[in-house]
Fold this sequence. Notes:
This protein has strands at about 15-25, 30-35, 40-50, 55-65, 65-70, 80-85, 90-95, 100-105. By secondary structure, it is mainly beta. It is globular.
Amino acid sequence: MTNESEPAEEETGLVGVWTTRGVDETLGEVEVEMTLAADGSLGMVLVLASGARRSFPGAWFYDEDQLVLTGAYFTPDGESRVRWRVEQALLLLEDAAGRQQEWHRKE
């Protein structure tokens, strides 16, 4: 059983800054930066093509075999539950519908 008050352990390789690129329905092309801190805090930053940045704080933890990301960034429910795996500098996330995202560790 996972204790939500304790953040995920660093040895999983999840702690750090991860980036991905995509197209937001409202904002157009964006780069997304996700910071998973050892204390369980989460920072999501959207970097727009214009250079503007939008930040969304949140939290993260494990729930059995899922990674749970919470905060205002994750609409409409305020959370995202995904299966995950780390392969060197690549974080692969997969939602319940089977959609996958690749995140790259930021140097």
